[in-house]
Fold each of these.
Amino acid sequence: MSHSTSTHASRFPDANGYYGDFGGNHWPPHLGPVLEELTAAYEELRSSPDFWHELDKARAGLQGRPTPVHHLENISDQVGGARIHVKREDLNHTGAHKINHCVGFALLARKMGKRKLIAETGAGQHGVALASAAARFGLECEVHMGAVDVDKVNTNVSLMRLLGARVVPVASGQSTLKEAGDSALQAYTEQHAHALYAIGSAIGPHPFPMIVRDFQSVVGHEARAQFLSITGGTLPDHVVACVAGGSNAIGVYSGFLDDPEVALHAVEPLGRSGQPGQHAATLTFGRPGILHGARSVVLQEDDGGPASVMSIASGLAYPGVGPEMAMLRESGRLSIDTVSDEEAVTTFLRVARSEGIIPALESSHALAFAIRLAGDRPPTERILVNLSGRGDKDVDFVLARRDGGGPLRG
Ligand SMILES: Cc1ncc(COP(=O)(O)O)c(C=O)c1O
C-alpha cells in the first residue's frame, strides 16, 4: 500500500514542527542545520510516489507486509461482549512493528548518501529491526541499549550482533531506555556527517516524530481497508494500542484520525503500582516539559528532571511520549487507561493458551485493556487492537516469574 495522507496528517505538524503546543526543536542550536538537512531531504522524498513504491516493495519482501487483521474468536466468546480483532504486527520480520520505520529510515539514509544508522533500543525490538534493515540496505548499524536491558533480553542482543550491528551498552542512571536515548543522540551529534539517527519511536525533535508517524501509518491504512473488507463496510468502534513513545499507537490511529466515531484508546503501563517510580504512565500522570529535544508530556521529579520509571515490559519503560500523542491527549481525542504488570502477564498467558498467539509483554497491555473494554461493551461493537509484537523474547522471563513464587499462576 502506498503512502496516503489523512486530513489530520496534512494539518500536523505545522511549519515549525508543532502539534498544537507540543513538538518543535529543542536540541542545542548548533544541531539546527542537521535537522534542516534531514527535513529538506525527507520532504522531497515524501512527495515522491517512487519513494513510497520502493518502500512498499522492500516491505513486502523483507517484512512480509501486509500483515493480516485477525478475529480473536475464542477470547471474544469467553468474554461475551464486544468482538476483539487484532492487527498482526507480531508477524512482521523480526517480530514487531518497529521494522516499519526502520526500513523507512534505511531507505532514507541511502537516498541521503549516509552510510550508517544509529539508534537506541529498549526491549531490543527496535535494535533487531534496525540491524536487519541496515543489513538489507548495506549500511553500518550502531545500537545503544541500557545495561539492564542488555541483561534482560539477551537473545535480541545476540541477534543484533549476528546481523552485523555494534551494540553499545549504556550504564548510567537507571541504565534503561532513557539513558540509551541520551547516548544515541550524543553519538548522532558526533557522527551526523555520515550517519542518520533512526529514532526508536515517534519522539525527538522535528522532523523525527513526523517521519516515524508517516512510516508507521502503513499499519492504520492497511487495517482500515482490511476492516472495511472483513465487515462489509463497517469501521471498528474502538482502536486500542499500548504506548511508550507512541509509534505503534500513532501508526494504527493514522487510519482512523479523521473518523470521530472511532474511539482511540491509549494504554499505559501501571507497573507495580501507580506510585511515583513504580510505573511509566506518562499520558496519565505526566505534565508538559521537554525531553529528548521536543516539548511534550513528561513524567517528572519535583525538580523537573525526568522521573524513574518501571514496567515489566522494557519497551514501555520510558518517561516521555511523542508530541502528537500529547496533542491528542490535550484535545480530548484519546481515552487513556492503564494496565498493571500483573494484568499484562495474566493476559500474556491467556492469549497464548486461548488463541495460540504469544504477544509481547508490551502488546499484552493493549490486549488486557481490550479484554476489559470488551466485557463492558455489547457484542455488536468491534475493537481493533494493534498487536505490536510477538512475545518470544519474554517467554523465559514470564515463566520464571510464574514458577518462581510470583503471585501469578498460569
Ligand atoms: C512490541 C512493542 N510494542 C510496543 C512498544 C512501545 O513503543 P511505541 O510506543 O513506540 O510503539 C515497543 C517498544 O520497544 C515494543 O517492542
Amino acid sequence: MLWPMKNKFFLLTFCLFTLSVFSQNRTYVKDDKLTPREHNVDMQHLLLDVSFEPKIGKVIGNVALTFTPLLSRVDSLYLDAPNIIIHHILMDEKEIKFSQNKKGITLFFTKSLSWENSYTVTIDYHCFPRKGIYFIGWNDEQNLSRKQIWTQGQGIDNRHWIPHYDEMNDKLITELIVHFDKDYKVLSNGNLIDKTEEGDLTKWHYKITSPHPSYLIMLGIGEYDILEKTAESGTPLNLYYYPDWESRVSSAYRLSKEMFDYLEREIDVPYPWESYAQIPVQDFMYGAMENTTATLFGDFYFVDSVSFNDINYVYVNAHELAHQWFGDCITSRTSSHHWLQESFATYYGYMVEKEFFGKNYFDNTRRKAKDKSLKEALKNDNPVACSFAGGVRKYPKGAMVLDMLKYVVGEDEYRKAIKHYLEKHAYENVDSE
Ligand SMILES: [Zn+2]
C-alpha cells in the first residue's frame, strides 16, 4: 500500500494483537509483533453473499466459512466481528450457540470437531461499518459527488464488514456474490464467473483461484467503463475508468501493459493470478492498495496529459503491480516482516522507472532513497525487519538493501534467488531470519 502526503510516503502502522503467551526474538531489538497470532483452525474458503443499502451505509451479508481444525479436538471458534449484528449461525443446517463481545464472536460447537474433517459455518448478519468499507456520495443532495462503494482491508479492517478470522497468517480461497443496482459496475477479486440480471439488480459472482490473505479481499462499485488489454503472457488487463474521464485514460494508465510485460520478464516468474484489474475511486485515504487481482487507487492519480508532468500514476502503478508477487502471492507472516512486501514493491517500482525513464532517473531516485535512509539512521538504529521500522526503512531503505544485495552477488545470482524464493513460497506466508 502507498500513502502519499506532501510528496512523501508514509506507512500505515498496523495494530495486530496476539493471543500468544510467548514471543520470539530474532533481531537485536525486542519486537512483540514477531509472534504470529495463534488460531485453532485453518481457514480454507470464504463465500460471501452480500447486498447493501448505501444511503444508510448498511451491509446485509451471509458468509460461509470452511475450515479444518489444527488441533485434534476443537470445541469453539473465535472470529473477528466488531459491531456486527448476528442473526443466526448455522452448521449442517442447525443453529449453533455463540457469544459476542465488542470485538468478535465465539462459536460453541455441540460436538468437538476433529482435524480429519473440514467444516462449514454460515453466518447471517448485518452491520453499519465505519471502517473497511466506505459509502461515497449516496446522500449528496447537490449531486456533486460520484456514487461509489469501495473497501480498504489492510491492516485489519475487513472484519468490520465480514465476520471472519482476519489475520495475514492464514490464506484462503475467497468468493464474493454481490447484488447491486444494475446501473453500476461491481469489481472484486478473481474471475467474474457469473453475472445475472435480478430485476433492478445485477448479481455479480467473483472467485479467486488461489489462496490469498483476507485483508486483500476487495470490492469496488461505481459507474465505470473498462479498457480491456491483454499482456504478452495472455493475462487479461482490465483498466477501469469514469466514462466522463475517457480522454484521460491514455495518460493515467500510461505504461500499464508495458510494465506488466516488463515485470513478468524481470522477475522471471509468471504473474501469479488469473487477471489484473485497476480501479480509481473517489476520496481514497491512501495512494493505492494492492488487493489481489484488483488494485484500487485514488482518482487524484487519474490525470490528463498536462497534469501528468506534475503528478502521475506510473510509479504507484508499478509498486502495486509488484505487490501481486510480493505481498499477495507471498505474504509476510506478521507486521515484523512487512519489509518483505514493501521494500520489494518499492524496489521493483524503481526498476520499472529505470526501464522506461532511464538510468539517470533511477540514479536520482537511488540517491534520494539513500539520503532519506541515512537521515533516518540519525534518529535510531532500528532494523528494516521489525514492526516499528517506520516508512523510510520499509520502503526506500529496504529497496536499497535489495539493490546492494544485487550489486554484491551479481545480477544473475540475484534474479535466480528471487525466482527460487517466489516459487518455493508461492501462496504461502514468509518471514525473515
Ligand atoms: Zn506497498
